Amino acid sequence: MQAKSHWEGIYSTKLETNVSWFQEHSLVSLDLIGHTGVAKAGAIIDVGGGASRLVDDLLARGYHDLTVLDISASALSVAKQRLGTRAHEVNWIEADITSTALPPRRFDLWHDRAVFHFLTDENDRERYVQAVRKSVRSGGHVIVASFGPNGPQQCSGLPVVRYDAGHLHDEFGAGFELVEHTSEDHHTPFGTTQQFIYCYCRMF
Question: Which domains occur in the chain, in start order?
Fold first, then answer.
């Protein structure tokens, strides 16, 4: 995984609305989470959620067992300050997903928009998948989004791996049933467009 200092630098020097991945509302993610049918009391983790506003919308929709994990304390601080008094309703974890130990079988739904494509090292990808296997309950839901084949080759000055739906699913392998996949043309705050691929799997 990339150095923590890189992401601390990004979030301590830029506004949350002035990074390429900013979304006012993560509509594709919200739709896919809705498609899973996970209960409002279901345990959801947003990996790399940082300053993302997905947690705001999940709270607004009545989900109330939410965890946001990010390598950057600065990113998490942005989200906490934005949520104000509601921040205490969320479990915040400052950690590198490739090296942290999450509670076993804790989560009903795993969501990641734009962490996995930064894992250019095969060993990091394997550790990530093992974290999913260990912390998501049998029958649970896994939603991962990455840059698609026509997406950028770099983001935030770092190299990425681009995927189509088949190759993204292959990284997870047996035990993950691909239920649905879709693409999104994300319009950045800078007037450019980035292709994202989303895969929704059930884990068995």
Answer: 4-11+21-203 (3.40.50.150)
Q: Where are the beta strands (DSSP E) in 103-175?
A: 107-113, 136-147, 154-155, 158-159
pLDDT at 1: 46
What digits encode the pLDDT tens for the residues 176-202?
999 999 999 999 988 999 999 999 999
Three-class DSSP labels, 137-151: EEEEEEEEEEECCCC
Q: How many CB atoms lie within 10 A of CB 70?
A: 26
Q: How confident is the model at residue 6 (pLDDT cuts 50, 70, 90)?
A: confident
> Rounded to the nearest 5 degrees, what angle is found at the Cα of 92, between the Cα atoms of 88 and 96?
175
- Please state the rounded mean pLDDT for residues 64-92: 97
pTM over 0.85: yes
Check if the beta carbon of residue 140 is closer than 8 Å to that of residue 96.
no
Structure tokens at 158: 């770092």
Spatial separation of the C-alpha atoms in residues 134 and 126, rounded to whole Å: 12
Alpha-carbon 194 to chain mean position? 16
Please check the confidence at residue 39 and state whether its pLDDT lies above 70. Answer: yes
Question: How many Cβ atoms sit within 10 Å of the Cβ of residue 173?
Answer: 9
Strands 107-113 vs 43-47: parallel, antiparallel or unpaired: parallel
**Angle, helix 4-13 to helix 73-83, in steps of 10 degrees:** 40
Token readout for 200 is: 């929704």
